[in-house]
Design goal:
single chain; 321 residues; Beta-lactamase; five-stranded antiparallel sheet; 9 strands; 22% strand
Length: 321
């Protein structure tokens, strides 16, 4: 007979397990069509786990939406690296130092293409300060920005997601998490932003930073290795020890033009989103999933796009805005 105390301990462990998964847990996959919400392939898609730098998609959305709300030009919106930028880990492709300045546009390029944690923190700090000032409040600007990221999750139905910072690095005492399904929702929402859509499809980009010794230039390379292949628009890479290799990918095909019963023409837009979490061969795996996903989608569409169980077959998506 199992001791009651052991039963309670196992129950507690089970309750926390979804949040504490590591890179040793199975791969999580979501493949879906972005306009219809049709789920094409899903494996462990509701399992909560760290998502590393896929977090930066939310950072970019909040930043772009703030620029839009304040009628700010991304190329003229100058931000300054805070003192805390020196404490961030990971690659620093721009050698960003406290006090360096750059445009929000260039910071987004570095964060989205080069997965630059320093740029992500700089974005959050500067916009967070503006948010607090607008509300007449004091406080931690990065925390204020992250709060907006979590408001975004509620807005678009990401019920299994919590962000704790703007870059996705794991930190003691504060663990963020999401799921493949929620990252697919976030991917759809991000790619509706023209600025983000344009940025993530670039193979590389020349950007500049102004520091104590003057202006210096850098060429940021897109870490998404599928960029350049037909139809691939990119989105975001991510890797940490806890999350494992992660990748979100967006691929478009030309709209499908069909003749309606009344003789008029109708066009059906087609866009696939593929999310893989903890996938050792994330690029090769995503390439195969795209092929499989398109085949399933084409067959579904040819059959008249039937839906028997919307809760299981269709991913709830935010309305276009």
């Amino acid at each position: 007979m199992i001791h009651p105390m052991l039963v309670r301990l196992l129950a507690l462990l089970s309750a926390f397990a979804p949040v504490l998964l590591t890179a040793q847990t199975p791969e999580c996959v979501m493949v879906m069509e972005a306009y219809s919400g049709k789920i094409l392939i899903a494996t462990n898609s509701s399992v909560k786990r760290p998502v590393a730098s896929l977090t930066k998609m939310a950072t970019a959305i909040v930043a772009v939406d703030w620029a839009t709300a304040t009628a700010s030009d991304l190329s003229q919106f100058v931000i300054t690296a805070p003192q805390t930028v020196a404490l961030v880990g990971g690659p620093n492709p721009m050698s960003l130092q406290p006090g360096d300045s750059l445009t929000l546009r260039d910071a987004l390029y570095s964060a989205l293409l080069g997965s630059d944690n320093h740029a992500a923190l700089t974005i959050a700090d500067n916009i967070g300060r503006q948010l607090l000032a607008k509300r007449g409040k004091n406080g931690d600007p990065v925390a204020a920005f992250v709060a907006e990221m979590n408001k975004l999750t509620k807005l678009i139905g990401m019920t299994q997601t919590r962000f704790v910072n703007p870059h996705g690095l794991e930190r003691p005492g504060a663990q963020g998490y999401s799921t493949a399904a929620d990252m697919a929702r976030l991917s759809v929402f991000a790619m509706r932003r023209n600025a983000i859509n344009f940025i993530v499809r670039q193979k590389d980009r020349q950007i500049s930073v102004t520091g104590a010794t003057g202006m210096r230039g850098y060429r940021i390379r897109n870490l998404h290795e599928l960029i350049g292949e037909e139809g691939i628009l990119g989105i975001k890479t991510g890797t940490t020890a806890a999350a494992g290799p992660c990748l979100a990918t967006c691929m478009d095909r030309q709209p499908l033009v069909r003749t309606r019963p009344d003789g008029s023409k109708g066009a059906t837009p087609r866009r696939l989103i593929v999310v893989v979490l903890n996938s050792p061969d994330r690029f090769g795996r995503s390439r195969k999933l795209l092929q499989q996903g398109w085949a399933i989608y084409d067959d579904w569409l040819a059959a008249g796009a039937p839906v028997k169980d919307p809760q299981r077959e269709i991913l709830d998506l935010p309305k276009a805005n």
